[in-house]
Hints:
The longest helix is centred in the first third of the chain and has 23 residues, at about 5-25. The chain is mainly beta. The two termini are about 45 Å apart. The chain is about 10% helix and about 45% strand. Strands 15-16-17-18-28-24-23-21 form an eight-stranded antiparallel β-sheet, covered by helices on one side. Strands 4-3-7-1-29 form a five-stranded antiparallel β-sheet, with no helix packed on it. The protein has a five-stranded antiparallel β-sheet with strand order 12-20-26-25-22, with no helix packed on it. It has helices spanning about 5-25, 50-55, 355-360, 395-410, and strands at about 30-35, 40-45, 60-65, 70-75, 75-80, 85-90, 95-100, 110-115, 120-125, 125-135, 150-155, 180, 185, 190, 200-215, 220-230, 235-250, 255-265, 275, 285, 295-300, 315, 315-325, 330-335, 345-350, 365, 375, 380-390, 410-415.
Amino acid sequence: MSEKIKILIIICSIFFTELSIAQKDRSVCFEIANSESNSAESLISVKFDEEIFKSIKHEMVLLKISKKGEKIVPFQLEKQGSKIWFKHKESEKIISYCLKKSNSLSNNLKFNFQKQNGVLRFDYDGQSLIGYRYNMKLPPNGVNNLYQKSGYIHPVLSPKGDTLTRIQPPDHYHHYGVWGPWTKTKINNTEVDFWNLKEGQGTVLFKEFKSISSGKVFAGFTAKQEHFNLIKKGSPRIAINENLEVKVWKNDNPNQYFIDYTSAFTTPLEEGILFEAYRYGGGLGFRFKEQWDKNNCNVLTSEGKNRMAADGTKAKWCIIYGESNNRKSTNGVLFMSHPQNRAHPEPMRVWPITANKDRGDMFFEFCPIRHKEWEIKRNKRYKLNYRMLVFEGSISPDQAEAHWKAFAYKPQIKIK
């Protein structure tokens, strides 16, 4: 080999090595144009093509660049979707973000998860938030085994530790914290009820986890849930395949955190399935704690309806709040329905004050089939998207509207 060729090989090797290093260390920048003037923080994602995403490393920092200067913003990678997630708050019409290499990094992962006794539990900085039951939960002794169930969220804890959800109450053993089975359905003109478990017609059960994650920005999971038609005894048949995606995240308020709840589902049935119009079913159901009744629990919807008037009406959001366990304050949940949901603003089921023999226990549900049936066709993908803000103290209507707008309107993102 001649000396000239050797020199050329060395030069090319140096060039491509430096190019590779430069590509690994390059900045990745994008702009966010805010579509709505809003003061509330929201969890958003940016999707990159695979080549750009490969250049994004954990050793980088995300810089928010605005008129006020540069600020480091925590971010979290989602390899499966080639995305980064971070919290965004609108302060200017257009804001730039850049991912850059940094030598000063914090590896403190605020969110964590653990599997314990059949429950996937999530916490933030040691503070317990929610649990998802993936193992079968048997009914109390002496109660029909048809009430056994998996695939639901419980507990949901307030920021100060009050348990807000309830499961297997004696008045409704089929109530399971946060869950959403369909009630009046028809398959080939045969009625199948997935809600009222005692009928033995249907049930919804956990199948498997598709992903579980935790990091600096959120923790969450995607679980496959199967909706079984049990009409033909001894031969259960899958009527609906559901992917339930849940993300838990926090804003800067120590007395608040968020639960993003997305149900995406299909039916494998050639004939499809009909969700009949009914006051219960699907969407997002939430059975609240035993301590709340008509004397210490209140409702306010985006349309100004209180507990006496809310049931059966439609809303973008609904605040359910009541007395805290120590009776010194209040806590509750702000429920938000996404504009792309079926029948948005969404109909609601809100138990009246006469519920449960005038006790006035609290049950809430966003119910997309409350007033109109929904025909589900084979292999077509359907999605329902909700956000819950769990809070201590109170939420004003203006604050609720700001949080809903942050959830409802995704800003425009332009990768540079």
